[in-house]
Amino acid sequence: MGNHGNAEGPRRRPEEQQLGPVLRRRGQVQAGSTTDQRLLDSAGPSEWVHTDPWRVLRIQSEFIEGFGTLAELPPAISVFGSARTPVDSPEYEAGVRIGSALVEAGFAVITGGGPGAMEAANKGAREANGISVGLGIELPFEQGLNQHVDLGLNFRYFFVRKTMFVKYSQGFVVLPGGLGTLDEMFEALTLVQTQKITRFPIVLFGTEYWGGLIDWLRNTVIAQGKASEKDLYLFHVTDDVDEAIALVTKEVGK
Length: 254
Prior knowledge:
Layout: E1 16-19, E2 22-25, H1 35-40, H2 52-70, E3 76-80, H3 90-104, E4 108-111, H4 117-127, E5 132-137, E6 151-155, H5 158-167, E7 172-174, H6 179-193, E8 202-205, H7 207-222, E9 236-238, H8 241-251
Parallel strand pairs: 3-4, 3-7, 4-5, 5-6, 7-8, 8-9
Antiparallel strand pairs: 1-2
Helix pairs in contact: 3-4, 3-8
């Protein structure tokens, strides 16, 4: 009888190996099993779930979930602000009023889904019977989505989440906030300045809070030639809820 399977003994490593779209030759050939065998081998190593190729698939899945969930949203405005804003503060009340006013103007409201100013805007949107969206992020200090979010997504990766904010918003309203709020605000300003996005109003709410930053931009950044005077027109500053909503509706054509 002839030999069957591996009865002929161990085989020499091939000089060429095709693994899906990847071609390996000579010293790059990997010993081991086929792709199907590795898939079905439940006793195999688990380290692969922490490799960069696997992370790419996770990143891809987050984009797909985000695009699929948010694609049918009506026009929306993202509201940013500090997670540490106290519930009994004027800033929280302003967030509630802004969320409600945006719904009345015909917009869905998107926030980072957390507490504080984000919760306030979601609360205003929900109480106005609008669409209240929260785009959360996985953090070491667990926050979770606030109770006023009706449509929520939690992301592993900041850059995927930030793409969703810009792609599915027609503008930003930025309440007083910390590093995360500044991050979102300056990314939006950069995208508008470099014309990656157009017709994108950015409204900073709270002249006293934002005044020092604006003075620094004018008297240091622009004065030293690091930015242009016209860059100050990339955003608006106001203390009035109605004016903030008017600026957003005017610039997005609603």
